[in-house]
Amino acid sequence: MVAENFAEVEKRVCAACERAGRNRSDVTLIAVSKTKPVPMLEEAYAAGARDFGENKVQEIMDKYPVLPEDIRWHMIGHLQRNKVKYLMGRVVLIHSVDSLRLAEEISAQSVKHDVDTDILIEVNIAGEESKFGISRDETINLVEEAAKLPRIHIKGLMAVPPFVDDPEDNRGYFREIKELSVDISAKKLDNVSMCMLSMGMTGDFEVAIEEGATLVRVGTAIFGERDYGNKL
Ligand SMILES: *Cc1c(COP(=O)(O)O)cnc(C)c1O
Question: What would the pLDDT profile of 64-123 be if each residue is shown by its tens digit?
Fold first, then answer.
């Protein structure tokens, strides 16, 4: 089932790229495997998935050693500072940096482990109280401050817009994120690139691609509904 789903999502990503006049290679499809067991990840890997997204440090720790080495792991969930150290050298990108204190810890741990860490700044674009992320207005300031820290590199922005039935309802938010990244890019800050935009999930990834996403995070459409009933 996972293989068929992955192929179907891949087809939809291709079609969205085509509609938007973009190259397929400009968009990374991240298979969001949180709560899903290793055999399902292996199935996605066999179908061609190489980028996997998790939202818990512990799950990355558990899955990382038992899956192929060429998997690129993405940390997409809320990150506590005391767990940052476990991610060092294991993930290619931390999508969910939303405070200077967190950026400082990632920087300090990167120095300590002698690695460079790429990060995205998570923006709470719709200003939802239930969501993590920094407010739109505070984003530039956080980018400027975090850019000064050693061994971390800001690569762009990430957003989780509202859960909606009609993906068109989020098009405006995706545009806002893109505009914000263009504004930041225009400042030409040292150590800041806005080459990545992580936005779009199962319900709205095609619209996100049309609006400039370079990373889409798709879980349910690949792995099926998640069951939070068990401990994971
Ligand atoms: C779970 C999750 C996703 C995937 O959501 P689906 O709707 O299942 O595709 C994407 N991004 C983040 C941050 C998530 O936590």
Answer: 999 999 999 999 999 999 999 999 999 999 999 999 999 999 999 999 999 999 999 999
Cα 151 to middle of ligand 1, angstroms: 28
Joined tokens for residue 39: 């055999």
Alpha helices in 187-219 (DSSP H): 205-210
Specify the residue with its C-alpha closest to ligand 1, atom 11: 217
Distance 77 CA to ligand 1 centre (A): 9
d(CA 99, CA 109): 16
Q: Within 6 Å (CB) of ligand 1, which residues are found?
A: 32, 34, 55, 76-77, 160, 201-203, 217-220
Nearest to 90 by CA among 78, 105, 106: 106
**Secondary structure (3-state) at 70:** coil
21 residue type, one letter: G
**pTM for the whole thing?**
0.96
